[in-house]
Every structure is written in structure tokens, then in C-alpha cells.
């Protein structure tokens, strides 16, 4: 998750508190709990992949926008606007308080909170309802047979 030394309050702390205190009711089947957990894990992996892209953008040395004389023809100087654009992209990727990386980190925290809330409810159901526990335990390790959502193929995009 975030590399910040100071953690901001959880986005859904109030929901987690209500769940932990037993003040929230959720009506789901064992399959629903399993699918929510799997979907949260998938979403978290996707967010982390997107954060890696943001890190790559922030650390990319050469952009080819005239930001460096190395990437221009010999008789051209560095373009001030090219350097400005590249610096803005780098900052928005990771170094800004409102950067893509930090926004994705907030989304990651929300998904973790949703997942934790469902796990708390699920664990309580497993402890208190033998029928639910049997259904959950018999299905939790079964491979996911739902159709997988795939990222769109962007190779055909105009460049």
C-alpha cells in the first residue's frame, strides 16, 4: 500500500467500526462472500498494476518531447515547453498530493475496507451458523469458474 510514513484515516473507517461493533446487517450467501473476496483481490491487483504504470511514468527518463537536447537534432535547443510538459506528467504520476498514484492508493484502501467489512461479517456467520459455515467451507477453495474480466486490448489504438 502507501509508502507514506503517516497514514491518513481509512476512507471507510466508519463502516468498519459499525461492522466490528455488530451494528451492520448484510444478507449474502456463501457464494456472494467468496465472490466479493475474489473480486476485491482482483481489483487490488489491478490497482497495484496501475500504480506500477504511474511509477514508470514518473521515472521515465526520455520522453521525446524536446525536453532534452539529447533527443533533438543537433541544431535544435531544448524546448522549454517540452520540459514543462514532461515535469507535469511526472508530478501528476506520483509526486503530487493529487497524483494518480495517491488517488489509486485511496481506492486501494477503500477496497481493503470493503473486503475487511465482508470478512468480519463472514467470519461471524461461520462461527454462529453451522449451515452457512458448511456451505462456505465447501466452496471457498473451489476455483473461480465465473467468466474472467479482461483488460481491453489497446494495441489497435491509434498512436
Write the layout of secondary structure elements.
Layout: H1 13-20, H2 30-59, H3 80-95, H4 100-128, H5 130-139
Describe the structure in your own words.
This protein has helices spanning 13-20, 30-59, 80-95, 100-128, 130-139. The mean pLDDT is 84. The two termini are 33 Å apart. It is elongated. The chain is built from five helices and no strands. It has 159 residues and is mainly alpha-helical.
How much of the sequence is in beta strands?
under 5%
Distance between the termini: 33 Å
Total DSSP E strands: 0
Which class do the helix and strand fractions yield? Answer: mainly alpha
Q: Helical content, roughly?
A: 55-70%
| Tally of DSSP helical segments | 5
Order of helices and strands: HHHHH
| Largest sheet entry | none
- Write down the overall mean pLDDT: 84
Instruction: Give start-end ranges of low-pLDDT stretches.
Output: none
Output the radius of gyration: 23 Å
Shape: elongated
Amino acid at each position: 500500500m502507501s509508502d507514506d510514513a503517516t497514514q491518513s484515516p481509512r476512507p471507510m473507517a466508519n463502516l468498519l467500526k459499525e461492522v466490528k461493533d455488530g451494528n451492520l446487517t448484510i444478507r449474502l450467501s456463501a457464494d456472494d462472500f467468496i465472490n466479493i473476496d475474489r473480486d476485491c483481490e482482483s481489483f487490488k491487483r489491478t490497482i497495484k498494476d496501475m500504480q506500477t504504470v504511474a511509477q514508470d511514468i514518473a521515472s521515465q527518463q526520455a520522453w521525446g518531447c524536446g525536453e532534452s537536447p539529447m533527443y533533438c537534432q543537433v541544431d535544435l535547443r531544448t524546448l522549454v515547453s517540452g520540459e514543462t510538459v514532461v515535469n507535469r506528467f511526472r508530478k501528476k504520476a506520483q509526486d503530487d498530493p493529487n497524483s494518480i498514484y495517491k488517488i489509486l492508493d485511496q481506492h486501494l484502501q477503500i477496497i481493503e475496507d470493503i473486503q475487511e467489512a465482508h470478512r468480519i461479517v463472514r467470519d461471524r456467520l461461520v462461527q454462529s451458523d453451522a449451515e452457512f459455515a458448511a456451505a462456505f467451507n465447501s466452496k471457498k477453495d473451489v476455483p473461480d469458474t465465473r467468466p474472467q474480466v479482461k483488460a481491453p486490448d489497446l494495441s489497435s489504438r491509434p498512436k
